[in-house]
Amino acid sequence: MKKERAIGTHFKRVLTLIAAFVITFALFPPMISEAATDSAKVAFRKEIIGMLCSADETTHDVSKYQLSGADVNGIFGNLKYDDETKWLVAAYYSNLYLNYSVEDGYVKSVNLENVDSDALARYNRLVENVKKIKDGIEPKMSNLDKIIYLHDSIVELATYQMVAYESYGAGGVLGDKKGVCAGYTKALNLLLIDQNIIATYMRAPSISHGWTSIYLDGEWYHIDSTWDDTRSAKKGQTSHQFLLRNDSEFVTNDNNSHVAWEVYDFDFEYTSTSTRFSNWYVHDITGKMAFENGYWYYVDSGTNSIMQNTAEGGNAKVILDGTGRGTITLVDATPSGITYLENGTTKTAGYEANTTQNNTTVTGTKATVYLAKEGSSTYTAAGTAMLKEAKTSKNSDVVTGNILSLPNLSKYVASNQYVKWTAITKSSSGKFSLKGTIYTSAVQNEPVVEEETVKPTVSATFYLKGIGSTSYKEIGKGLLYKDETSSNTAKITANIGQLPNVSSYLKDGEYIVWTKISKSSSGKISVKGEIRK
What we know:
Layout: H1 2-27, H2 38-53, E1 60-61, H3 69-78, H4 86-91, E2 97-103, E3 106-113, H5 119-135, H6 143-157, E4 159-160, H7 170-176, E5 178-179, H8 181-194, E6 198-204, E7 209-216, E8 219-223, H9 225-230, E9 243-245, H10 247-250, E10 262-263, E11 290-292, E12 295-300, E13 305-309, E14 317-320, E15 328-334, E16 337-342, E17 345-349, E18 356-363, E19 365-373, E20 380-387, H11 396-401, E21 403-405, E22 417-426, E23 432-440, E24 458-465, E25 473-480, H12 489-495, E26 496-498, E27 511-519, E28 525-532
Parallel strand pairs: 4-5, 19-23, 24-28
Antiparallel strand pairs: 1-3, 2-3, 6-7, 6-10, 7-8, 8-9, 11-12, 12-13, 13-14, 15-16, 16-17, 17-18, 19-20, 20-21, 22-23, 24-25, 25-26, 27-28
């Protein structure tokens, strides 16, 4: 009886607790995070765009929107792809990050991180360059035509150069005309996707390199715009060697071999086996290709002749026979005819074969080319170039844009090197000189940025040494991704997540090469760089 009475008492106590719980739950229900409304998401998106448009790094209270972390990540991530905002986001460093805090299940505050001081100015430059590129897309262009054109546009626009973190983003190439393989690839992919052509980012960690893969007419193909720039047989001219290749053609087991790659920005694997472009005439073209009214125009280097053909090939026609003529270089194709150079003299030709209109001949300005190796002040004469205008400059972009034609520089510039054009000068006797510095490309050893959302957290003090100076000056604090020392410029640059403001230390045509990360006995990290021109 005592045992039964004890069990009954225990049972009553359990019922009492359950009843108390039910009453408490009814009176004080738990707070459950409700899904944000569509209008709240639209308003939050507008606020983030406003922050990007003003490079606003301050913390914003966004608790009123009642957004989850997933909501915030989704909205911010989609800005990279939305037509309204993709060019704006591209202008920022590729490690642009939206930091947020959470309270009671909702995102309370947000702030932008890794915002560089030149982002908005870079955006304006990017918009101008993208407009010029898109204005060149003609109504009669097929997707294949657009792929050729956009590939050539990136190669012609960009110079392979590692400056800072912008070198890894599309904005570095489209806004600053400088970048490394990640920048070339992201810029090309952004333009291709803008034209509704599927493009992905491929990477090969073993050679620290990345390139584009596109989906055309049901098949995948590789495009390496970086190597078509840095490994052209004729320096300063566009190569097409790595345009639309399959897997087997990309594995060449030499210095131009792509190995052990993977898809970087999508979670799937595929193979490229199509032989559609395996014997494509475009692969043999080094130099300008110009599109007009459904046809491509180019110079056949074997015959020194200007040719006409469709993108697919098989319809080749001689427009200007180069037999017995001086070196022919194609400049452009317009509705009125072909513009070309013959030994540096500008001429035009109609679309009827072998007709030359000498009455439109225009002569450029001759300039002697002088080249110096990186770190050397000794220049070597390397032939004669033609300039568009007879004007001097020490601004690298202005100098490069004024070059009409170059001599063959293969004797002076190796396949893994490139020339940065630094100055056009004029002597007292009126003779022009074009000066350039030879740099060794870091394509093979280029570091791969694994994740763009990884935050730099390692504090470091940055120092700069001016041109001709032997001492370093402290310029401020910045952040690194990894706590590691190095004397490898490529690795140092990749490790820099946030720079102090360096713009006040640089003049036109100058740039910074980061040379050393060191660590003191007390654990303080220093980053040293040199200003070069």
